[in-house]
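Now for today's protein.

===
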Amino acid sequence: MTTDFQAPPTGPGAKVSTTDSGAPAPSDQFALSVGADGPLLLHDFHFVNQMAHFDRERVPERVVHAKGGGAFGVFETTADVSHLTRAAMFQPGVKTEMLARFSTVAGELGSADTVRDPRGFALKFYTTEGNWDLVGNNTPIFFVRDAMKFPHFIRTQKRQPDSGLQDWNMRWDFWTLSPESAHQVTYLMGDRGIPRTWRHMNGYGSHTYMWVNAEGVRSWVKFNFHSEQGVENLSNEEAAQTAATDPDAHRRDLFDSIAEGEFPSWVLKVQVMPYEDAKTYRINPFDLTKVWPRGDYPEIEVGRMTLNRNPENHFAQIEQASFEPSAVVPGIGFSPDKMLLGRVFSYADTHRHRIGPNYHQLPVNRPKVEVNTYEFDGAMRYDFNPGQPVYFPNTVGGPEVKADLFAGTGWEADGDFVRQAYTLREDDDDFSQANAMVNQVFDAAQRDRLAQTVASTLGTVRPDLKERVFDYWRSIDKAVGDHIAELAADPSVEAHGPAPASDDPDTPVNKDVAVDKTTPLNDGPLPAGRPGL
């Protein structure tokens, strides 16, 4: 009978073994499994990262979010949430250096900033426990909830293989066959579909994450960043004019504002759900196509993010910046959100392909803490630890795990291996939150502009698919669906160009609208009197 050899201490003065993002490693000897004899788990980020890097030890533009810009800044925790998370950056008064990158999703590197498209809202925090990346969007929701559908969705936002052209037939074919997209599509086609600038939009982590405090108490959490510049948007006409005269308008606005000393800022608020609530809450709290109504889980202010320093080299510091949900620190964990778990692998892997296996060593991606990881060689490696052994276990002073500081960030799971949708809950459906946005957040003028925008995309859509589009919108709201059908039959409705969608998720809670169990989160009422708002 044999058992796994328990490694002795590697030697006096051994350093703490870390993940490649600088956080303490959970183990260098055992992968995470379902019980001692069960299968391994894909979201074991340390094992996946170690193996994926090992596969590339011997010796391109982002597929999505290609066009973007960003800046450096600082996050300051101004409230006390230490009873909710042990994460060092969220302790009262802590200031953390950080990097933000904003982007469109579907367009290529040279595309216009003002297309109708969700915006990426990716943040990297250089904490004292390693890097933490929050990779979200300017919407709190997304188009799909299962990671298997993600590449299929993104291809509908790209180009046809024969003509090389973007195509509304692809988009509406996918959306109408994926009713879970209704909430995000309503957000996209509404007035909030084109931000005036990156400074004038909110940002959301979108996914549900886990917080764990020093006593090991777990909570579920959503991260919402509210722009202190206010939320402002462009009309179709303004966006088209800006795209024609300055396709880099959003990148230019952010850079120039910071250069002139006008530092944009966002207030971070979180929604926190007690761990046990998730088991019986009336909607699936891990469904990326839905929001948590603030009436059920109010926002708690945590701190402020301020961008105050422009990049000195856009390629080195923005294009080569890598953001990955797998970069977590003690006190922050994942959740059963299937999209999040898929992204835990996919995002880090795209950086290995695009930048190389040693992308963490680039200055913009390098943690501020010492990295001692069992990953070696590979293309473009220039940082190393002299004398460190290349294997574990060892007795020659290699880094070792002192304690698994990620212990307690898991959750219970049991069942057969299946390929199926989430189990439906009491109030789970694909259209009620979209309906609430249309009727409780949008006013009559906004509903009319929503219908006009949708109708303007249908000029080249085949007739049978148009009927599905009308039925899709009638499922959201019959009056809006009927209005879209009327406008689509009117040749005076002009198309405003393609409205690409995003791979990264969101939708906000209205501060001034009473929130009941069906009301989605939103950014608050749009200010009156401004064009396109």
Summary: The longest strand covers residues 299-309.
